[in-house]
Amino acid sequence: MIMNKISAIALDLDGTTLNTDLKISSANKEAIFKAKKQGIKIILCTGRPFNGIKAIIQELELNKDAENCLVVTYNGALVQDCRDGRILYESQIPFHSFESISKFFKDTELGVHAMTIDKMYTYDKAINPYTIRESYLGNLPLQVIEETADPLQKNIVKIMVVGEQLYQYREPFFARYSEEFSLNQSESFYLEVMARGMDKARGLEFALNHYQISKSELIAFGNNDNDISMIKLAKIGIAVDNGTNQLKKNCDMITLSNDNNGVAHALHKLIN
């Protein structure tokens, strides 16, 4: 499948562009730089916050682009300028929703945390290891708050429910909250809660409109179910071989795995 024109490439990071060691391989990097040289916009689309991708932005030299370079963060809840993190598009979740979801999981093994633009919060004094992992990957400081604490004065962008036993509570949680929020399970141990209607496609559409690029000129890469919306938005949606079965059912093309330079393999076929 060849496109007449490619103007933008949307890249999921973890499990797609990054390998198991959370690095960009030299082959993937070379293919991305080749696309940039041809004037193709590279749009990182990730569940991570901006603080958690600064090093990747710099490695790919996206912050050196002459024009505004946008990244889609928090699974589409934010669109930000590559150079300084300035917010161009943002959705929010009210504080009482964080309270409600935290109470729902209070007597379980799972952890719940809220993410703002620059910090994470949890009521869990026994901090879940995956909350600690997310704090590290996102480069966001974590604060444990009391149940009697006043509402946060900062906008909550995303809420996460984390833990190995997530599958046990998924059905009742979806039954209770699916009409109120957009719910995405990005890993077996990660459930991401965002404002209703928010997903990677929503943030990506904003970025494309900013660049005045049609979705018919877009290719997108992903590995997990939270990438389905942008895979379906793109003219060509590409799943890496390590992607979920559900994602593969919705894609146009399957490339090699993230540990076998899948992004580079597909780009070599699609870009002269």
Describe the structure in your own words:
By secondary structure, the chain is an alpha/beta fold. The chain has 2 domains: 8-90 and 198-271, 3-Layer(aba) Sandwich (Rossmann fold), CATH 3.40.50.1000; 95-194, Hypothetical Protein, Haloacid Dehalogenase-like Hydrolase, Chain: A, domain 2 (2-Layer Sandwich), CATH 3.30.1240.10. It has 10 helices and 14 strands. The protein has a 6-stranded mixed β-sheet, with helices on both faces. It has a 5-stranded parallel β-sheet with strand order 2-1-12-13-14, with helices on both faces. Strands 3-4-5 form a 3-stranded antiparallel β-sheet, covered by helices on one side. Strand 3 and strand 4 (78-81) form a beta hairpin. Helix 2 packs parallel to helix 10.
What is the gist of this entry?
With 272 residues, the protein is α/β, with parallel strands linked by helices. The chain is built from ten helices and 14 strands.
Topology:
Blueprint: E1 8-11, H1 13-17, H2 26-37, E2 41-44, H3 54-59, E3 70-73, E4 78-81, E5 87-90, H4 95-104, E6 111-115, E7 120-122, H5 129-138, E8 142-144, E9 158-162, H6 166-177, E10 181-187, E11 190-195, H7 200-211, E12 218-222, H8 228-233, E13 236-240, H9 245-250, E14 253-255, H10 262-270
InterPro entries: Cof (IPR000150), HAD-like_sf (IPR036412), HAD-SF_hydro_IIB (IPR006379), HAD_sf (IPR023214)
Protein name: HAD superfamily hydrolase
GO molecular function, one term: phosphatase activity
